Amino acid sequence: MKRRSLFLNTTATMGFIFLYAPMIALVVYSFNKSKLVTVWGGWSLKWYGELFRNDQIIDAALLSFKIAFISASVAVVLGTMAGFVLSRFGRSRGKMILSGWISAPLVMPEVITGLSLLLLFVAMESAFGWPAGRGTSTIIIAHVTFCMAYVAVIVQSRLSQMDETLEEAAMDLGAKPSSLFFLVTLPLIMPAVISGWLLSFTLSLDDLVIASFVSGPGNSTLPMVIFSKVRLGVSPEVNALATLMIAVVAIGVVAAMWQMRRQTKLLADQE
């Protein structure tokens, strides 16, 4: 038993070191005074100031957050609708086709997805004149395409585990379909909807491959800018930017855990 416990602790420790040691090194070197990221020159906040004076990175970050917010919001609406259909409709050929369409973006390589969307946008521009070139709108459409698949899977899983007798009781009391969904079903699946939005926001913000295919001149997202800079060598400004993003994520995780513990404690006190 002791050997097993020692093995598990060692394995867990090595796993955490493998995952978080690069992040810790990145955070430390973001405070490096030297321009060479591999040579320590002392502690300094120099590169944080340079980061906020870099208009290219700031503009790319704002564009990425804008695209991620819009894409996640649209994907949540469409994905929730698709998940509801997949969960509530009986077996049929149409349901099988829809399930296949939803599952395809989950297993399709991003290169294939990006190339197919690029060809689609080019064909649409030739046939209808829209979209006029590639830019922010095409990136949003592309991100919604694959993000809604993740939302649909999450919402469908939550709906399949939900107690349908609550909806039946609401219908017995005279609730209309629209009222039933917005007042009963939606609040019950809201944790899944929020999870789907957060996952979609993260996937959109992190996407590089698909955005590289469907973006145009002047519409470089933050991952594209970082990738172009890293190809020429890691810049201390990139370390500073990554450190700020890690800090934001860490604060969000801590806040979410605190809120969950607070709700658990309130429920326990009520009981």
TrEMBL record:
<feature type="domain" description="ABC transmembrane type-1">
    <location>
        <begin position="61"/>
        <end position="257"/>
    </location>
</feature>
<feature type="transmembrane region" description="Helical">
    <location>
        <begin position="180"/>
        <end position="199"/>
    </location>
</feature>
<keyword id="KW-0472">Membrane</keyword>
<dbReference type="Pfam" id="PF00528">
    <property type="entry name" value="BPD_transp_1"/>
</dbReference>
<dbReference type="GO" id="GO:0055085">
    <property type="term" value="P:transmembrane transport"/>
</dbReference>
<keyword id="KW-0813">Transport</keyword>
<dbReference type="InterPro" id="IPR000515">
    <property type="entry name" value="MetI-like"/>
</dbReference>
<dbReference type="InterPro" id="IPR035906">
    <property type="entry name" value="MetI-like_sf"/>
</dbReference>
<keyword id="KW-1133">Transmembrane helix</keyword>
<feature type="transmembrane region" description="Helical">
    <location>
        <begin position="136"/>
        <end position="159"/>
    </location>
</feature>
<protein>
    <submittedName>
        <fullName>ABC transporter permease subunit</fullName>
    </submittedName>
</protein>
<keyword id="KW-1003">Cell membrane</keyword>
<feature type="transmembrane region" description="Helical">
    <location>
        <begin position="12"/>
        <end position="31"/>
    </location>
</feature>
<dbReference type="InterPro" id="IPR051789">
    <property type="entry name" value="Bact_Polyamine_Transport"/>
</dbReference>
<feature type="transmembrane region" description="Helical">
    <location>
        <begin position="67"/>
        <end position="86"/>
    </location>
</feature>
<feature type="transmembrane region" description="Helical">
    <location>
        <begin position="238"/>
        <end position="258"/>
    </location>
</feature>
<comment type="similarity">
    <text>Belongs to the binding-protein-dependent transport system permease family. CysTW subfamily.</text>
</comment>
<dbReference type="GO" id="GO:0005886">
    <property type="term" value="C:plasma membrane"/>
</dbReference>
<feature type="transmembrane region" description="Helical">
    <location>
        <begin position="98"/>
        <end position="124"/>
    </location>
</feature>
<keyword id="KW-0812">Transmembrane</keyword>
